[in-house]
Specification:
Organism: Durusdinium trenchii
Strand order of the largest sheet: 12-11-3-4-8-7-13
Number of strands: 13
Low-confidence stretches: 89-111, 333-352
Protein name: Transglutaminase-like domain-containing protein
Structural class: alpha+beta
Shape: elongated
Oligomer: single chain
Order of helices and strands: HHHHEHHEHEEHEEEHEHEEEEE
């Protein structure tokens, strides 16, 4: 009789032992899905590494054969099993490129043909009776005030974004009648309206553009209004001081720091002397610097933005201005001849 096998010894359970509860069916399914996902990811990574290694080895062999064609053996036919499939490319929606707004260039409105917008001159019907019989300096004050009420300043890059109108209505620089009727323009558009009025009144003028010494500042268009050579500019300046008080108010203002700020410090003239380049272009005489966008005799914004320089005894342009259109001073009493161009103008000497 074979010997009996002793049965396993069963140890008694410890009453204080913490037992792990049996996993529920939901947790079991979740663990199974996690394991499948992990296994699938690992297999995909391994297969991608394997295919990528085969691709790199094939490219290296091709480069070696091309570099040593004599030592290379005839290529063996590539078995079908070694053909590498194309790597999967993740599918993503192709986004359309954002529409880039065309940059507005100043060359479009500062060209050589600015004189053609002035033409034979334009003077609104309501301004004709107001300007008749006035002296020249007072005509400038009346015209600037009427333009300030009628035309507001707007940058050219804002104007070009408007809906196009008939006959170039919404161009930054267009005919004076269009600008007067629509009621907005940039600095060049203001100069076109002002120069058209000067042409209709028979007053010599010159439209010039200035460059700033500060970076990022665009070119700025201003006016030069001609006065005869024999004009007493000191008397004109005294008369302008009276007109400033009449049209704009006090010439001195007290700021928040209880300091007096001089708003009007007198008119600024340049003179075209005999033999100068300016005299050849515009003729002899005194030329009042005037910005149609600002008040008559106001130059603080030009100095602040770097278009002009001013010291205790000197006042001039930061760079040589460029002529865009003019009417010669000698033709004031006769039939005026107008021309347009972009030749540079020498800085004139300031008159006392």
């Amino acid at each position: 009789m074979p010997p009996s096998v002793p049965s396993a010894v069963v140890l008694p359970r410890c009453p204080n032992r913490c037992e792990r509860p049996a996993a529920s069916a939901r947790e079991g399914r979740r663990a199974a899905r996690s394991q499948e996902t992990r296994d699938g990811t690992e297999s995909a990574v391994l297969s991608w590494r394997f295919l990528n290694g085969l691709r790199e080895s094939q490219q290296a062999s091709i480069v070696e054969k091309e570099s040593h064609p004599a030592a290379s053996a005839p290529p063996a036919p590539t078995p079908v099993c070694c053909t590498l499939p194309a790597l999967p490319v993740p599918s993503c929606p192709v986004l359309s490129k954002p529409r880039i707004a065309a940059k507005w260039r100043e060359d479009a409105s500062w060209g050589r043909d600015i004189g053609r917008y002035i033409g034979d001159g334009y003077l609104p019907e309501e301004l004709g009776p107001k300007l008749q019989g006035l002296e020249r300096i007072e005509q400038l004050f009346v015209l600037q005030r009427a333009m300030a009420h009628r035309i507001r300043y707007e940058k050219g890059k804002v104007t070009v974004k408007r809906e196009p109108g008939k006959c170039g209505l919404n161009k930054p620089v267009t005919f004076a009648s269009n600008i007067w009727n629509r009621g907005y323009a940039n600095c060049a558009g203001h100069c076109v309206v002002f120069a058209s009025a000067m042409k209709a009144l028979g007053i010599p003028y010159c439209v010039v553009t200035l460059r700033s010494k500060m970076k990022g500042k665009p070119k700025h268009a201003i006016m030069q209004v001609g006065f005869p050579e024999e004009t007493d500019i000191r008397r004109v300046s005294r008369r302008a001081t009276e007109l400033w008080a009449q049209f704009y108010g006090d010439t001195v203002q007290v700021n928040a720091y209880h300091r007096q700020v001089r708003l009007y410090s007198g008119l600024k003239f340049v003179r075209s002397r005999m033999g100068s380049e300016a005299a050849k272009r515009k003729g002899l005489g005194h030329w009042l610097i005037l910005d149609p966008v600002a008040k008559v005799g106001c130059y603080h914004h030009l100095v602040k933005n770097g278009y002009m320089t001013q010291s205790k005894k000197a006042f001039g342009f930061s760079s040589k201005p460029q002529i865009k259109s003019w009417q010669r001073a000698e033709d004031e009493a006769h039939e005026s001849s107008s021309d347009s161009g972009s030749d540079t103008l020498d800085v004139d000497v300031q008159s006392a």
